[in-house]
């Protein structure tokens, strides 16, 4: 069997040059007086700076750990859709997506983009479509990150099954792009951003789909639930039981043609459980590197987010299973990625 291409479906540009954050801070400082700037043209980041920020960080670790290609999106906690209004988010999303596009142009063999959307609480999601289409058509992006809670921890939007979201789903189906369901920073003191809000959102998104018939309306819609699916695999029996009480079909039929999980689970027993409970066809390799958890596990001596080690060590996986997790499933869930790879003869 040929060696799989190691595709990491979940990476963010967390190492962007400081100028980006400084621009954003000025934008936030002038929320009430946007005429005072900053202008988009005031942000100047050279190709050399971009190259350096990637080569010293993500690309270095990818080479060390043996992954080939990362689906690369803007830093999730910086999306902060709760800040300002639609125009604030539109300008910010445009800047962040363009930087990911430039990274993918500088390192076409190693990065391909996924878009952040200019969501804003209470605003019609159809306003996100121009940015989505620009990213797909002009930048060659292969997916989007969809924030189910643009309020940042207060959950003021309708559930993902609500028709409110349908304009985005229609575009996703039309362009064959999946959405990673990904919240941003928490501005609710009860929820730590990466330790609680992210995992809560993963679990919440799954349950919103479970209680609804969303995928009857959109049979080809695909969601990737990150961070190993939050609490979902661990509580699979609860979810099966709840679905049964609600007279829903078996979860394999009801949700698993449309919902996938990544491997951003930072210890071996977690990956063992994920690969035991969730069918291998629904698991995609990812690390979310360089992201939430950057340290070294003293129990193993390896980085927590070096998730390839756990896949390699997961005893129950066959070579064919690993091929699916590393490459096959990503090509299936991200058809535009598959086409881009085929065009390169891969
Ligand atoms: Zn993430």
Describe the fold and architecture.
By secondary structure, the chain is of the alpha/beta class. It has one domain: TIM Barrel, CATH 3.20.20.140. It has 14 helices and 8 strands. The chain has helices at 18-29, 47-55, 58-65, 86-106, 129-137, 166-175, 193-210, 214-217, 236-245, 251-254, 268-277, 308-313, 319-333, 335-343, and strands spanning 7-13, 69-74, 111-116, 143-146, 179-181, 223-225, 259-262, 283-284. Strands 1-2-3-4-5-6-7-8 form an 8-stranded parallel beta sheet. Strand 7, helix 11 and strand 8 form a beta-alpha-beta unit. Helix 2 (47-55) crosses helix 4 (86-106), helix 5 (129-137) runs parallel beside helix 6 and helix 13 (319-333) packs across helix 14 (335-343). It is globular. The two termini are 15 Å apart. The mean pLDDT is 97. Zinc ion is lined by residues 10, 12, 76, 182, 226, 288, 291. Zinc ion binds at residues 10, 12, 76, 182, 226, 288, 291. InterPro entries: ACMSD (IPR032465), Amidohydro-rel (IPR006680), Metal_Hydrolase (IPR032466). It comes from Noviherbaspirillum humi.
Brief rundown of the structure:
The protein is built from 14 helices and eight strands. The chain has helices at 18-29, 47-55, 58-65, 86-106, 129-137, 166-175, 193-210, 214-217, 236-245, 251-254, 268-277, 308-313, 319-333, 335-343, and strands spanning 7-13, 69-74, 111-116, 143-146, 179-181, 223-225, 259-262, 283-284. Bound molecules: zinc ion (ZN).
Give the oligomeric state of the chains in this entry, treating copies of one chain as homo and distinct chains as hetero.
single chain
The total count of strands amounts to: 8
Large-scale geometry? globular
Element pattern in H and E: EHHHEHEHEHEHHEHHEHEHHH
Strand content: 5-15%
Strand order of the largest sheet: 1-2-3-4-5-6-7-8
CATH homolog superfamily: Metal-dependent hydrolases
* Average of the residue pLDDT scores: 97
CATH top level class name:
Alpha Beta
Compute the number of structural domains: 1
Helix content: 40-55%
Give the radius of gyration: 19 Å
